[in-house]
Amino acid sequence: CEDCGKSLIGECKLHGPLIRAKDRAIPSRARLTLPHYLTLRVLELRAGNQQILGVFAKKVIQKRTQFGPYVGQLSTKLTCYDESRLVLQVLKDGGKYFLDTPNEDCGNWMMFVRLARNQEEQTLVAYQHCGEVYFTTVKPIEPHTELKVWYAADYAKFMEASALFIKEESDVSPLPPVAKEPVDPWICSSCGSTFATFALLESHQCIHKDRV
C-alpha cells in the first residue's frame, strides 16, 4: 500500500481496496465483420447469459445482393450445432466438409443469420460456389427486418434437406408465429431424435459412435 508503505497480502485494512479499472471490451472477429447497414439484436437470453442473436437490416437492401463467403473452419465432424442456424457443408479437394464455427473468433457475421422456417420469412438463399458458401437476397429487405436464410434448390439436394413450405393463411395470427418442423425429418434409429437435414443426422450418429 503506497499510503501506509506496507507490502500486504490482499487489501489494506486501513485504506481499503484499490479502484480497479477494466480494459475496454474488444468485439469478436465475427462482430467486427458486420456491414455498417446491418445490426445485431438480442432476441433471447438463455441460462448462463447465452444470447440468441439475429441480424437485422438498418436500411433497404436490394434484391440480388450477395454476401460472403461464409467464414468457418473446415471439419469432418460438426462440433458446434445450433438448431436456429443452418448447417453448411462444402466440397473441397474431393472431400465433403462442414463449415464449423465453434466461436465468434473463427467466423464472420454470417454465423449469426438464423434459418428461415417458411418461404414467407425467408430473405436469403444459401448456395455453394467454387468451394465457398454465399448468401444472396431473394427479395428487397426493409429496415428492421431480420435476415433469414435457407438452402438454394441445388444446395438443398447437396445437403439432403427438405424444401421450405409456403405459409398458409390459417397460420396468420396476431401472436408470434410458431416455428414448424421441416417436412420429412431425418430420424435417428438409435434414439429417435429428428433432424432437418441428413448432415445433422450423420453428425449425430458420429456422437453415438464416440460414446460406444
From TrEMBL:
Name of the protein in question: PRD15 protein
Keyword Secreted: no
UniProt-listed InterPro entries: SET_dom (IPR001214), SET_dom_sf (IPR046341), Zinc_finger (IPR050331), Znf_C2H2_type (IPR013087)
Signal peptide: none
BP-aspect Gene Ontology terms: regulation of gene expression
Domain SET: 38-152
Residue ranges of every copy of the C2H2-type domain listed in the record: 186-212
Gene Ontology CC: nucleus
Pfam families: PRDM2_PR
Natural source organism: Helopsaltes ochotensis
Keywords, ordered alphabetically: Metal-binding, Transcription, Transcription regulation, Zinc, Zinc-finger
Entry's Gene Ontology molecular function annotations: zinc ion binding
